[in-house]
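Q: For a teaching session next week I want to show students how multiple molecules come together into a single three-dimensional assembly. I've collected the sequence lines for a complex. Could you give me the predicted structure tokens for the whole thing so I can convert them for display?
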Amino acid sequence: MPKVDAVLVGFGWTGAILAQQLCDAGMTVLALERASARTTPNNWATTFDQDELRYMWRHHLFQNVKYSTLTFRNNVNQTALPMRHLGSFLPGTGVGGAGIHWNGQIWRWLETDFKLKSHNEQRYGKQATASLTLQDMPVSYQELEPYYDMFDKICGTSGQAGNLRGAKQAGGNPFEGPRSMPFPTPPLPMTYGPKLFEQAASSMGLHPFPHPAGNLSQAYTNPLGLQLGKCTFCGFCEKFGCGNYSKASPQTTLIPYILTKPNFELRTEAEVLKVERTPDGRHATGVTYIDAAGTEYFQPAEIVALTAYQLHNVHLMLVSGIGQAYDPATGKGQVGRNYCYQTMSSVDVFFDDKLLNPFIGAGALGSVIDDYNGDNFDHDGLGFIGGAYIAGTVTGARPIEMLKVPDGIPKWGLEWKRAAAKYFLRAMGLSVHGSSYPQAGNYLSLDPTYRDQFGRPMLRMTFDFPPNDLKMTKYCTDRAAEIAARMGASHVHPKARQGPYDITRYQTTHNVGGTMMGSSPADSVVNKYSQSWDVPNLFVTGAGLYPQNPGYNPTGTLAALCFMTADAIKSRYVKALGAPLVAA
Amino acid sequence: MGQKSKRRVNRRELLALGGALGTAAAAEALSRHDGMLSGPSRTYTNALPWDDGLTDEPEAAGEGGWQYLNEGEVGFLTAAVDRLIPPDPTGPSASEAGVVVFLDRQLAGDYGNGARFYLEGPWGKGTESQGYQSRFTPAQLYRHAIAAIEQAVGKRENGKAFKEVPADLQDVLLKQMESGDLKLDGPITSKAFFAMFLQNVLEGYFSDPIYGGNKDASAWKMIGFPGAHYDYSEWVTAYNKPVPVETVGLRGRAAWRRG
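A: Of course. Below is the structure for the complete assembly, covering every listed component.
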């Protein structure tokens, strides 16, 4: 195989961002993708896309656990067993990755989320963070802002700014950090349920604003010349592709551009097994991948970038033996440490007298409050830190997944059937999208027993909700229930997240940590430019970079970090190949 | 080519596809695109990864007789699904909507065969939060569980089958399965079976009619779901009003078809 300037392992959002950036800088780039190529007209055309059974319940666009899974346990005293069926999270596979079937909820972290540990210690004292292994990011909101803006422009994000260069804007999120530019497109209109949420929250003195959306309110042409169409509110975003070119995805915003580049090549059905290094271990020579025939190939590269999903990036680091694997018994090692999730909960809301028509929806259509997120409220005396955004978002009403009946009604039988018929058009859920903070026993490692189809140890997940996060979800879910009551609902059922963490029930595909970004090799796997401390020509992208997960959807921030990484590679790294961008 | 070594991974699939990717083989690769390494590596430069003339359309449930279920299983399922979703003027019962046909086709196909389950050993009992730990495919699980349930019912009810006992007793038995209180011989708990069964019944009742259930979109009509509509822009801000669109599935609706 001819050597390339950069080989990318996985071709979803961050693979596509790096490919676009590095190709435009004249580098030769090869993306290796384990599954097949997929396009809008071939794979999720509007004529057959709106199919709940096939895409959601039969996992048509998701990673197939038959070929790729992990083992799971709640704590180190249990024996981990394979995740034999997808449930709690739904990673993607193939070109576009999970960027195809996401909702398009595009968020930025709060300024304080970047210095979470020091900020909370300063405000609440060291005991407030003692049970958690929080740490600060080595990058600030201000440094990342230009890259957040780049991603918004690539996506055409629809929304209403709340803070424009320091000036508060009516109707936006008053808690957000300053934006250099307004959203590229105006916010989506509200359907009835979100409008009721907005009115209720407003009347309570809270600060509702439109959910920032990658489902576009109007036609848009991005800086690469790619065009997106206006959303038609069909209600099939999350778990589905968008046949209408209305949802920002690698397919709609980057890939058609990248594939016009003569210095780019995409190779599919090519699964990377390992990062290869020089005998001293300090330099990556390339990667070994395998094809369907079982033939292994060595692909040499000047730069290796792990651009797969967070779980796979951590797995590749561990099976390649790069860095030291985290051991909770000793606290030593960084790879796999600080695995976090997202503490999701909800409030079921039913109206006897209102028709909400929740089938009219989009992945990020709705109204949100950020009053109870991060440190936007005083935690003094609450016994926890962190928080959640509370969203009156209606993404659609796919009935197998989303039909609900009020509590107290059986799950089947005549009474259920009559309630289902009565309430389907009269119900919605408020989403409470909570932070997930790290504790010492939550981590990712290699399983001692189970092996994958290539003979490598499987990834093992050890995770349960920290007491801090269970207190957080209870508090924030109760606040959401107050809003629901103000909406005039007939039935309000708060469903705070309960432990233990259960891998069978869908919560969210926001798995983070394990390849954390930090200020030194003693607290992290990579530096602020996503560059490995141990192997300076290895870069790792994605939500694995997060030392903890704030109460926001991860894609906006991981995309911004990826643009920043690309910038550092183009402007600095290529001038001193193999050199660390940050002194260890 | 930097060939290093050979392994057995998916070799059979590659041989089946052949060296040159003809249209039929490409269609097969496309239909299995979600599996890892579902075909030979393909390289794309200077062109979108677009397969001319191919779409990854869903496969509809076939017509005709039972494909997986035997007569006894059909009897059990027909009775049981109609206790989960009974007949009444609100809308169709589960069996009237075709849910048993749906279950049969699903169990005969990829779902039943565990195409998206990891079923390699070793097996542990596991905790509830670790989820499905059976070595059975869903099709095998239904076969074993229904036989064990009929055995348990027969022992209690003088050799009667589930479908022969009165409806109120059927409800009691289903509730005991739901809680796991109905003890079964063999490795499957009634609770594990019931959880999968109820989920599959809801899938059959509310999925697109092409899969054999939700006949003529009757379950969607019952709840007011318009189905596979492309554009609701006109009604986004029409608050608290019925949306005047007709229910439609991926294959259109009955009125679109001749006689």
